[in-house]
Amino acid sequence: MATYTPPVRDMLFVLDTIGDLDSILNLPDFGHVDIETVEGVLSEAARFFSEVFAPTNEIGDRKGVSLEDGSVITPDEFKPVWSKLVESGWTAVTGSQDFGGHGFPRTIGLALSEMMTSANLAFSLIPMLTGSGITLLTRHGSDELRDKYLANLISCEWTGTMVLTEPQAGSDLGAIRTKAVPNRDGTYAISGTKIFITWGDHDLADNIIHMVLARTEDAPPGTNGISLFLVPKFRLDADGSPAELNEIEVVSIEHKLGIHASPTCVLSFDGATGFLVGEENQGMRYMFTMMNQARLEVGLEGLSVAERAYEHAAEYAKQRLQGRALGSSEPSPIIEHADVRRTLMTMKAYTESMRCLVYAAAAADDVLHSAHSEAERLEAGNRLALLTPIAKSWCTDRGVEVASMGIQVFGGMGFIEESGAAQFYRDVRITPIYEGTNGIQAIDLVMRKLPMDNGAVIEKYLAEIEALDAELERAGEPLAGVRTELANATKVVRKATSWLNSSPDVQARMAGATPYQEMLGTLAGGYYLAVSALVALPHVDKDPWMSAKVTTATFYATNLLPKVHGLIGSAIGGSNLIFAIDPQYIGG
Amino acid sequence: MATYTPPVRDMLFVLDTIGDLDSILNLPDFGHVDIETVEGVLSEAARFFSEVFAPTNEIGDRKGVSLEDGSVITPDEFKPVWSKLVESGWTAVTGSQDFGGHGFPRTIGLALSEMMTSANLAFSLIPMLTGSGITLLTRHGSDELRDKYLANLISCEWTGTMVLTEPQAGSDLGAIRTKAVPNRDGTYAISGTKIFITWGDHDLADNIIHMVLARTEDAPPGTNGISLFLVPKFRLDADGSPAELNEIEVVSIEHKLGIHASPTCVLSFDGATGFLVGEENQGMRYMFTMMNQARLEVGLEGLSVAERAYEHAAEYAKQRLQGRALGSSEPSPIIEHADVRRTLMTMKAYTESMRCLVYAAAAADDVLHSAHSEAERLEAGNRLALLTPIAKSWCTDRGVEVASMGIQVFGGMGFIEESGAAQFYRDVRITPIYEGTNGIQAIDLVMRKLPMDNGAVIEKYLAEIEALDAELERAGEPLAGVRTELANATKVVRKATSWLNSSPDVQARMAGATPYQEMLGTLAGGYYLAVSALVALPHVDKDPWMSAKVTTATFYATNLLPKVHGLIGSAIGGSNLIFAIDPQYIGG
Q: How confident is the model at residue A68 (pLDDT cuts 50, 70, 90)?
């Protein structure tokens, strides 16, 4: 079975170096948190997630979930672990102190989420989706709804779901048909069929709180006519305890490529009692404010599975003897073969760069919600908006790539399910798809984020990267390779950025969106590792961990960052070639 | 269920343009085959493989195989289909006419294999492995062994296996321990445990002929002491019919990520009767002569799954309505969205370029075995030797990439097993691993193939690509983009080649092997598509299929070929960085 060792030192390093944790802990909202507490929390949580949570990963994959008499049944091993998670309070660290949470910064919450997700992606989706519900309710729910539901969601005694998709409304949520008819008592009767509802039912919690998109009768068409409703599995009695079953049927669960332990439900609502969240017809707007959060969490999933696959492959490569490395007369551990070592270095460099990118976005989120000044908040919000599609798409694409490399390190054993490498490859494949496919992230990046503030937001980011050049120059020879490659890569990304931000041809911009997104993600990864290398450099003589950080940054800069040069042609190549062939000559 | 439409027109186009079919049919061995026969065979076979064979793919994946009372049981649906395949004679087209085959060129055999493999990869492995056994027996077996076994293998009434791997001997076959002790009658008693034996047992044929690597008692250590034995499941009686069971036990079958319908067996030989093939201690040499064949077949598997995944995704993208394409007021089929269309174009371009590469190698193999002159044979052999690791690795890596793109086109449905997209992603993942991992292919390419004939073999190939420049120049504006990008890409590949062929640092060459392999594969794909575009160009006005060929070549040249520029840094970057971090700082 694949063990998991949470990379606490790297997490703290990235929180400090990239996440600027000191500044975040100085924000008004976080006066009650200090760095010692954070260190204690991370090491305590590391023990819990590696020892208690991680062992459920393979069991969940193998046993999966089942639908019996209309209810989803989880593996027996999940129940005690879930209880322990709820008791531990790890899921409540970022929750509002007014409702029983600990009010920690989101950066710390994400570090804990990373551990939980590395330990068991399928299982981690419950707190993740519950967190989205908490955000929606906190921001947009009435006092009454908050009082009734929020504390139990923050403690995870009740769990949450996002109920958006319908068969005809996937990427295009404007096509939603589920109906909401007002009842006399101010509630609504919700009716319709919803698909792809993650953890839509299960046997772990006393109640499940669905956040459902639906249309009232006279709502305008498209996305402007969608409202958000809270629909509990069990209606509450006068004491606020779960009582009567609501009118929700679990029609079926899906047979999926991965995350077998996470039930993906088709739910049928047949006049179920729903409570309007916020105002009518504002549902999509509310969802969009929450989506940045969920998208970043999915980016985190790419990182988390990559970390686990990387650790797993490295462990195997150190003990598997096969062939003789150059200069050896005995069978060698395969980590001594150059090609395997290159693969592991690639996995390591991508994983550490993803951590930087995700934590950087989380730090922006903390500043956005807690900064001293409006100007800081505005800037942080713009940074978060820019980084979110990159973190979501780049980290999930790299997650798939790293998991596939993990299989390759295992050779023939990697194809055998018992080795565990295959599960990561299957599980992580959902992440480039859900919460907005990576193609949709790319459109968001190019059509909405690049033009923000007349291009000033992306310009500021590129200028920040360029400003590192002076520091890299001062660092001299040890970072000379990083400096050269970062400058070259930034130049080509800047060229693509200018082209995309000035082209009047919308179709051409959309055609170049995905390759551009990969370029910007690749550059961001190289940038953050370069920052890390600058911090690590003074310590390399005494500390091999710090020395490894400089090597990893250099490896990334010289081996991975140059990929941007192979992408610019596609990013600014326009759409003519792409649409030149009639569909009848595409396919079989 | 995913349908399959064999791309007969493209197969014939590539056979003609890249495979130089005219010349091959003029070789002395193929006087009995003409182009009309080839066309007839392909269109007849296309019907068989699409209508009869392809429908077993999803069934085989879902039902898998089981081990009952020591025997492997295949899905019921396989038995009648297998009988029809044997009757059809499609697997016997390349077999020797002396033993009931049709003596067709290998290029035609590979085109048929492509159809069989696209239709059902797991099932196609029986004829594939049987073909390897046929080659070994034909080249190295005694007359007696050939007379007894060859005809039944060529007809596929009996099937073959390759029995090489042991738990400690995967990539390093020199570590094999299975023993062969001479019996008095000239046979050998074979004892040992073998793993990863594809189709090592099943219920479809009357006999299974294992080709087993083992050591005689006084054999030298390592690869120089390995002999090859033919070990039948059933020993033959005096009439040559299968009679007594040999001493072979099916210990278990593996639970795999993909190719569920292909039983991967652990076989225990306990003094089983074996017949020496060729001479003692020559087993690895024989295997190597056969391995080029098998490796090319695995490269073909990458192509074949890519073709199927591409067709499947294109079909879905034409009917799935979601969102509105630019300028449309109605929901659009997603093929009209630029990002999806780019994905499909990438799938198309890779698939067609892979077909060229694999067929080019097969054509070299035909010339190698049938050419008029020794000089031609030598040259063809060198070309085959060069192209084999590229075809194996590049096509399987691209196969994984294309299958993953297929899932992405399906969006959320791609993650649901019923859509069929996930099966391609799971199945194809074995191909970069077996028959020599792609890392081993890269070492073979850089350490053995590049230095061949003092670098003259790769030089000739690069010069051939450069020579196309004059033709592309004559073609003018329509191929100007192809010309520029091909020239730029060739320059950078040439630079990497020179570096790798002149560096005295062996570790550095091994460290650069995989990125170099990707560079050369990417260039080869672009080269063959450029050749195709030159052939197609005169017909574009009257024939949209030909016009699509030119567009595809241009898309490849401008969007995919530039990837080589992002790889050269890794290819010639040396090994220092790769080995700079102590293993204790790699992994968790």
A: very high
Closest to A22 (Cα-Cα) out of A38, A43, A9, A7: A38
Q: What is the rounded average pLDDT for all residues in chain B?
A: 97
Which listed residue (B435, B459, B477, B485) is catalytic?
A: B435
A532 occurs within a structural domain: yes
Looking at residue B357, its pLDDT comes to 98
Residue B12 in this model has a pLDDT that exceeds 80: yes
DSSP helix/strand/coil, B235: strand
Three-class SS state of B108:
helix
Name every chain A residue with its beta carbon within 8 A of the beta carbon of B415.
Answer: 256-258, 429-430, 433
CATH number at residue A126: 2.40.110.20
**Binary contact (A172, B258; C-beta < 8 A):** no
Q: Average pLDDT for residues A269-288, to the nearest whole number?
A: 97
For residue A435, indicate whether it is catalytic: yes
Which range of residues forms the domain containing residue B214? Answer: 55-88+120-281
Of B345, B411, B587, the CB nearest to A171: B411
First-residue to last-residue Cα distance in chain A: 42
In sequence order, the 6+-apart residues with CB closer than 8 A to the CB of A94 are: A101, A102, A103, A104, A105, A106, A108, A109, A131
Residues whose CB is less than 8 angstroms from the CB of residue B406 and which lie 6 or more positions away in sequence, other chains included? B309, B310, B312, B313, B347, B414, B421, B424, B425
- For A492, other C-beta atoms within 10 Å of its C-beta total 18
* Residue A333 falls inside a structural domain: no
Q: What is the rounded CA–CA span in Å between residue B520 and residue B393? A: 11
If you measure CA to CA, which chain B residue comes closest to A522? B566
Q: What angle do CA A329, A333, A337 make, to 5 degrees?
A: 80
Per-residue pLDDT tens digits for A533-563:
999 999 999 999 999 999 999 999 999 999 9
pLDDT in tens, B510-541: 999 999 999 999 999 999 999 999 999 999 99
User: What is the DSSP-derived secondary structure letter of residue A332?
Assistant: -
Instruction: Judge residue B31's burial from the number of C-beta atoms within 10 Å of its C-beta, 0-12 exposed, 13-18 middle, 19 or more buried.
Output: exposed
Helices (H) and strands (E) in chain A, counts: 20, 11
Contacts of A199 (CB under 8 A, 6+ apart): A125, A126, A129, A159, A161, A208, A262, A263, A265
Check residue B1 and give its pLDDT: 63
Last residue of a domain, one of A251, A281, A311: A281
Place of tokens 């064979």: B53
Residue contact B417–A165, C-beta within 8 A = no
Which one-letter amino acid corresponds to residue A356?
A: C
- What is the rounded CA–CA span in Å between residue B59 and residue A553? 47
The answer to whether residue A105 is domain-embedded is no
Distance in angstroms (rounded) separating the CA atoms of residues A146 and A152: 10
Q: Do B256 and A165 touch (CB under 8 A)?
A: no
- Is the predicted pLDDT of residue A304 greater than 90, yes or no? yes
| pLDDT, position A91 | 94
Distance from CA of A360 to the nearest CA of B (A): 22
Q: What is the pLDDT of residue A46?
A: 98
CA distance B508 to A449: 42
The tens digit of pLDDT for each residue in A333-354 reads 999 999 999 999 999 999 999 9
Instruction: Count the domains in chain B.
Output: 2
Judge whether B534 lies within some domain: yes
Q: Which tokens belong to A247?
A: 């009118």
What are the b/e assignments for B103-137, b being 16+ CB within 10 Å?
A: bbbbbbbbbbbbbbbbbbbbbbbbbbbbbbbbbbb
Q: Cβ–Cβ of B339/A513 closer than 8 Å? A: yes
pTM exceeds 0.90 for this model:
yes
Task: Using the predicted structure, report yes or no on whether residue B289 has a pLDDT greater than 90.
Answer: no
Domain boundary among B281, B313, B332: B281
- B548-586 tens-digit pLDDT: 999 999 999 999 999 999 999 999 999 999 999 999 999
